């Protein structure tokens, strides 16, 4: 039991990053009666029921569980800043999309501070599922975190004690999901040019089962809206496939589609953490 928990009772959670996903996790966990502190220098205020901290160190000091939702590029610097303020035995859960190698490097840093590390893969869109999105967790913190999440009504399953295992499985899933989205987008774009868009979307939806129409609509809309972030994710997936020594022509094609959507005029823009 850490400082704040001893003083106030209940598990204390720190959420780092109040972008779309971080804000949802902070708000929903607070809504379940948990004590939540959060911080994000780029966001003013905090979700209902969440205590805003002035810095990362202030947010995590005494916390039993730290959730990092800052984006892959910021994951390392945020962990580096958080670790000195965390107590031994606390859990640092990295929910950012990244490759297995990066997750393992983060886990090694945490181990040197006697902090448990959880590599957490989110397997469904958070805006649609909120904290009901299923999670896959690996690392030294997995054994403690899976039952903890289950007690809060968050679906989570373990993927072993090695950090990077959950990240790798998520990237393999992305090969399929983003590859499917690219196939749908290509087919529907061509069908629209041929004057058969409605027929084509109906055909695809019919093959995907009862939830097909909604799935097709989400993939067409979501691929366009989140093209920059998904391009970065698929680049991580390609790097992982290359490390496995397996072919990746479908992943290459999906990246090409995402690049055309993210940078329609040939320019490159930097992705922002979410």
Describe what this molecule looks like in 3D.
The chain is an alpha/beta fold. 54% of the residues lie in helices and 12% in strands. The longest helix has 29 residues, at 165-193. The two termini are 31 Å apart.
Strand order of the largest sheet: 3-2-1-4-5-6-7-8
Uncertain regions spanning at least 5 consecutive residues: 1-9, 268-274
Outline: globular
Helix content: 40-55%
Keyphrases for this structure?
12 helices; 54% helix; 274 residues; 8 strands; disordered N terminus; disordered C terminus; eight-stranded mixed β-sheet; alpha/beta
In short:
This protein has 274 residues and is an alpha/beta fold. It has helices at residues 3-8, 20-31, 56-60, 72-82, 100-112, 126-129, 142-151, 165-193, 197-207, 212-225, 227-244, 249-262; strands at 12-16, 35-39, 51-52, 65-68, 91-94, 116-122, 135-138, 156-158. The protein starts with a helix and ends in a 12-residue tail after the last helix.
Give a topology summary.
Layout lengths: L2 H6 L3 E5 L3 H12 L3 E5 L11 E2 L3 H5 L4 E4 L3 H11 L8 E4 L5 H13 L3 E7 L3 H4 L5 E4 L3 H10 L4 E3 L6 H29 L3 H11 L4 H14 L1 H18 L4 H14 L12
Parallel strand pairs: 1-2, 1-4, 2-3, 4-5, 5-6, 7-8
Antiparallel strand pairs: 6-7
Helix pairs in contact: 4-5, 8-9, 8-10, 8-11, 8-12, 9-10, 11-12
